[in-house]
What we know:
The structure holds two protein chains of two kinds.
Chain A: E1 19-24, H1 38-55, E2 65-76, E3 85-95, E4 99-107, E5 113-125, E6 130-131, H2 136-151
Antiparallel strand pairs in A: 1-3, 2-5, 3-4, 4-5, 5-6
Chain B: E1 13-18, H1 32-49, E2 59-70, E3 79-89, E4 93-102, E5 107-119, H2 130-137
Antiparallel strand pairs in B: 1-3, 2-5, 3-4, 4-5
Amino acid sequence: MSREPLETPDPRDIAGYPFVDEQILRFADQDVMHHVNNVVFASLFETGRISFWRVLGLFPWPTDQGLMLVRVAVDYMRQLHYPGTVRIASRIRRVGTASVSLRQALFNETGECCALAETVSAHAIYAEGRSTPIPERLKQILESAMATGEST
Amino acid sequence: MTADLRDPALYRHWHEDVLRFGDMDMVWHIDHAVYVTLFQGARIEFWKWAKHDIFEPEHGLVMVHVSVDYHRGIEFPGRARIGTRILKIGNSAVTYGQAMFDQEGHLCATCEAVNVRVALKTNAPAPWPVELKTRLLAL
């Protein structure tokens, strides 16, 4: 049986990411189990992603076209507790014709990896209502950001 | 006392929060309900600063009132700074005054909130112990 090769660098290692965003946990992020609720992780990954787009100069994006989320997968590895700060690390995994895949990881205050996320965003011209090839300039930005990630 | 909640000099306790992308509504404003959540977080931090355990085993604080006056939109990306103080303590109630500023120091919103201290078993109002009340009022 063939097996998917292990991802390198180790996605649980914060050193393997070119970009890290810091967020503060909120009291309201907790559920009745006193955990930071699972859906909050998705929100934190989202805002980490936007910060990543922002440092790449891609946010705020044009009003007629941009990257739209088409897939999110989160693996929960460790409970997360309020209060505290978290770090959300992001890197580009793959730039395709019309989509870009991100690898993200969330670390608690002591540096433990609490969750991993994989997201895919498709480029779309909104009026056309479907995905469209990533424009050349945007593709260059994404590819050079991916290269930065590989060199760290 | 009618305190001017807009005056930063009113507050000795400050809490800072980072705005999230998901806090925005469809017109790119931080949604009004998020302000309520941010003020809540600041009150929790206030109690830690005041060294009073609001999660003591037998008593808790329940919300009975919150009102927010919106002065100016706070913008993403950015940070919110929230000042919190106690305005008055009644028999079993506590009234807070709060104000939110953006990272440039503009006043964005003020908030008045009231909690009642209750016995968790019965949900009946539980008067503040006198020493605690005195200590809190001196903060």
